[in-house]
Amino acid sequence: MEIDFTSVPAPVGAESPPVRARSFITVSFNTSGAKVTQAWLRQSNFSSRCRHISVERLDSLAWEDLRNIIGNARVGVHFVFAGPQMDIYAARALALSEGAIDAEITLLETEIRDRRVYCAHCRGTTVTQEKIGTITTCSGCARELQIYHHFSRKSASYLGFMANAEEVT
Length: 169
What we know:
Blueprint: E1 23-29, H1 30-42, E2 49-55, H2 60-71, E3 77-84, H3 85-97, E4 105-111, E5 115-119, E6 125-128, E7 135-137, E8 144-152, E9 157-162
Parallel strand pairs: 1-2, 1-3, 3-4, 5-9
Antiparallel strand pairs: 5-6, 7-8, 8-9
């Protein structure tokens, strides 16, 4: 049974009014993210400089590259992350940890396929395609986790806790 609500903020669509900035750093994840980014940029301030980075997904290599890019950014830069929910929220969390603020970040969500689930027991993170309200197996401790609707924007993951923990065995 999937629920219709989470604590994930509503994403900004490509049709939303663009922000003004001295320069943009846009990061698109997969082809759907690239298309949405281009549509968004067409509506933005063309006098601004724009650096576009395109990656398939936010793996460890892309993570380090993005950390360096964000760490070297200056005041007046606006970040645009476009693509699947799992990648854009992880990129957002990275940007915030490197000193960016929410007003400097736009998220353009294209899909929700994979989810990160944080295990409250072993503190590991599992990537799954299971829906909110269902159960997945933790990749760290092998517990059966209930995927709760709470979403941590800091860790870019949903909360997972042991399913049926109250049952006596």
